[in-house]
Amino acid sequence: MTVQQSDLKLDGNAIGGLLREIFAMEMTTAEGTCAHCGRVSMVGEVVVYVNAPGAVVRCPSCDHVLMRIVQGRGKYWLDLTGVRCLEFSA
Amino acid sequence: MSSRGPRLLEWRLGTVAELVQETPRVASLVLDVPDWQGHLAGQHVDVRLTADDGYQAQRSYSIASAPEDPRLAITVERLDDGEVSPYLVGEVRKGDKVELRGPIGGYFVWRATDARPLLLVAGGSGIVPLMAMLRHRAAAHSTTPTRLLYSSRSLDDVIYRAELERLASASDGVTVTHTLTRMQPPGWKGYARRIDRAMLAEVCWPKDQMPITYICGPTPMVEGAATLLVDMAFDPASIKTERFGATGGSS
C-alpha cells in the first residue's frame, strides 16, 4: 500500500472532538489568525494532518503551521505559536 | 439543541436499535442514546471501541439522521484494514452497546432556516452528513431549492439510493444527479466520470443566485470540487468542505 500525503490530509472538522477535550466551547467555528500571513480561518476550514504523533494544523492560505496538539501519558501539549489570535464565542 | 454550550464532552453508551445494510460495504447503525442533547445536520460523533486488554481505538462518524428523528443514526463504510469500521459493519448486533461522544462540529452544519439555494456535492460515504441535511430539510418541510451531485464508483455503491429517489420525486425542490465513475449499468444515461468543471456548470446553481455549498468526500475530490467552484467565481465563504481523507473514495 502506498501512502500519499493527501491520504492523511484532513481538515479542522476532524479535530472537533479533540479540541472539545481541551476547550469548553465548540471550536470548529472559532476563528484563528495566522501569525505568518494574517489570513483569518475558521477552525473547520484549516488543514489538518493527523499522521504525525498528534495533530498538525496548517494555514489553508500559506501552509505555515498554526497549531500542534499532542496527547499522551495523561497530558496535552498545545503549541499555538502559529496562531496570532484565536477568537470564539463565549 | 445548542451545538455549543460550555459543557464537558462526555463519553456515553448508545444501544444499537436497528442495523441497516445500505450497500455491501456500508451499514447504518440506529442508536438509542439516553439523554441525547440533540444535534445539527452535518455534525459528527466520535465512536470509541475498547478491546479486552484495554486498547482503545477511536474514529469520527457523521450523523446521518435528521435532528428531528427520535433516534441517532450513523452510517459507516467498512475499511478492510480499519480498526473500528470492520466491527461496526459486520460484527455489531442489535442490542449491543456502542461508546460515543458528541455532537461535535459547528462549521459544516446546515439549518433549514437558511433560505439560500443549497448545493450538496458528495463523493462516496461523504453523502452521510449531506443526507442528514436532506432529511432535516424534509422533516422541517423546507422548500429550499436543493441540488445534490453524488459521485459513486458504481450504482451498487450508492448509499441511500431508494431514499434519494423518493426525495427527488417529492416535487418539493430537490434534484439528485449521480455520476458513476468506475462501472455503469447497461443503458446508463447519467454521468460516468469524476466531477469536473463542465459537470459542476451543468448541475450547480448560477453563482448570482448566491447558493450555499457543502462538499464532503475523499480529500482530493473535495479539494478538486471546491477549487473548481472558486475558479468559477463562487464566493469561497459560501463553500463549506469536509474532508474524509482517502477513505470512502469515489474514484
What does this structure look like?
The complex is a heterodimer of chains A (90) and B (251). With 90 residues, chain A is mainly beta. Chain A has one domain. Helices cover 8% and strands 39% of the residues of chain A. Chain A contains one helix and eight strands. In chain A, the strands form two sheets. In chain A, strands 1-4-5-6-7 form a five-stranded antiparallel sheet, with no helix packed on it. In chain A, strands 3-2-8 form a three-stranded antiparallel sheet, with no helix packed on it. Chain A is globular, with a radius of gyration of 13 Å. Chain A starts with 8 loop residues before the first strand and ends with a strand. Chain B is an alpha/beta fold and 251 residues long. Chain B folds into two domains: 12-104, Translation factors (Elongation Factor Tu (Ef-tu), domain 3), CATH 2.40.30; 118-244, Nucleotide-binding domain of ferredoxin-NADP reductase (FNR) module (Rossmann fold). Chain B has helices spanning 85-91, 127-139, 161-168, 197-203, 219-231; strands at 12-23, 26-32, 44-50, 56-62, 72-77, 97-104, 118-123, 146-152, 174-180, 212-217, 239-243. Chain B has a six-stranded antiparallel sheet. Chain B is globular and about 55 Å long. The A-B interface holds A 1, 4, 6-14, 16-17, 20-21, 24-26, 28-29, 42-45, 89 and B 3-9, 44, 46, 60, 81, 101-102, 104-108, 219-220, 240-246.
Radius of gyration of chain B: 18 Å
Strand proportion of chain B, as a percent range, falls in: 25-35%
CATH architecture of the largest domain in chain B: 3-Layer(aba) Sandwich
Shape of chain A: globular
Largest contact between chains: A-B, 25 and 27 residues
- Count of structural domains of chain B: 2
CATH class of the largest domain in chain B: Alpha Beta
Question: Total number of helical segments of chain A?
Answer: 1
Portion of residues in beta strands of chain A equals 35-45%
Q: Quickly count the domains of chain A.
A: 1
The CA-CA distance between the termini of chain B, in Å, is 36 Å
Number of helices of chain B: 5
Through-space gap between termini of chain A: 45 Å
Secondary-structure element order of chain B, as H and E? EEEEEHEEHEHEHEHE
Strand order, main sheet of chain A: write it out: 1-4-5-6-7
Shape of chain B: globular
Order of helices and strands of chain A: EHEEEEEEE
Task: Report the count of strand segments of chain A.
Answer: 8
Number of strands of chain B: 11
Biggest sheet layout of chain A: 5 strands, antiparallel
